[in-house]
Amino acid sequence: MARRLLLRRSPWAAGDRAAHVVAAQEAPLSRHRRREVRVRRPALARQSEDPASAGRDCRGQSRAQADQLFSGRLGMSDLPARFDRNIRLFGEEGQRKLRATNVAVIGVGGLGSPLVQHLALLGVGGITLVDDEELDETNRNRFVGAVNDDPVPGSPKVELAARLVRKIDPTIRVTPIRASLISEEVFATVKQTDWIFGCFDEDGPRAILNELCAAYAKSYIDLASDVPEEGVYGGRICVAWQGGGCLHCLDALDRRDVEAYLSTDAEKAGRAAIYGVPVEVLRETGPSVSPINGVVSALAATEFMAAVTGMRQPQRLINYYGHVPKLTTAKPKPDCYYCKGIRGKPQDADAERFLRMPHLRERRRRETRRISEPVE
Ligand SMILES: [Zn+2]
């Protein structure tokens, strides 16, 4: 997962414009939100491990008083005590909904591995992990779940992530699939799964998975982190949910990058001859660090949690500007072909045509071989 898109169009440009609109829309809610935070603070304060403060939060409220606030959510639960703090936030019904949900994480690397950790801790019922790569030495700074003894080569990323899930909660159904997105097995997985997470570092696979999820009316969350220039870093998440927003209508794809990904080697050579240096030649390995990936993966897990448990509707796009820092949201453009035209119509979409493009699989096989070569 070392390939980066340093010279691509900044994914945050559109978010900046939208930020002013959203800020104006949300201003009247600020007082209400502050009140909500005050109500929830007792539960957060009880997490202190300081024995002196045990049973009492920072404002002197007793644990019994704080428990009273959430007693309606606790009930006589038969759910394991490990979910107690979850249930205090989104209720027993929300926890059961998470337990009844199957997710697939496609791309288990710097973004995917911290996401998997969040999903397992939330208590999701089934987690399918998809990646065709092995861990390499340069992944060790950000792959959550890898330990120093894991051999390189010889540690498929999906197996490391599956081990992480099993160690957190052995009752979760975890299925590692060592394959790339462009495979019958992964397409079949998407069709059978409730929620799909895409953790790629290229826009080509993003566009394919976006279309596949639209065709089969699957909920799709796409994650991206980026360092487009020195001193600028962050990321964004897109939530394609119930036909109200996707990577296309949220303007989150670089069309040139998608076209380059889908073209054959001959087409790429022809394009380079006409237009100059092909875009992928301009790519280089950029920075990628655990904390930035951690913020982006936590944002994705939070919107997933909100949508599944019914806490609120998920945001469709959240931009994270780590260097400022700030978060902004944006709304999709109307009348999207993917959200409205082909949603739930697999025969009209024919997303399976990507499986009939042998050059995509062949190029991926070449790249995977190159990635697996030991670092000099
Ligand atoms: Zn759309």
TrEMBL record:
PANTHER family: TRNA THREONYLCARBAMOYLADENOSINE DEHYDRATASE. Residues 84-323 form the THIF-type NAD/FAD binding fold domain. One of its GO terms (molecular function) is nucleotidyltransferase activity. SUPFAM superfamilies: Activating enzymes of the ubiquitin-like proteins (SSF69572). This is ThiF family adenylyltransferase. The lineage of its organism: Bacteria, Pseudomonadati, Pseudomonadota, Alphaproteobacteria, Hyphomicrobiales. Residues 31-43 have a biased composition (Basic residues). InterPro entries: ThiF/MoeB/HesA, ThiF_NAD_FAD-bd, Ubiquitin-activating_enz. Residues 31-63 are annotated as: Disordered. Transmembrane segments: none annotated. Gene3D superfamilies: NAD(P)-binding Rossmann-like Domain. Keywords: Nucleotidyltransferase, Transferase.
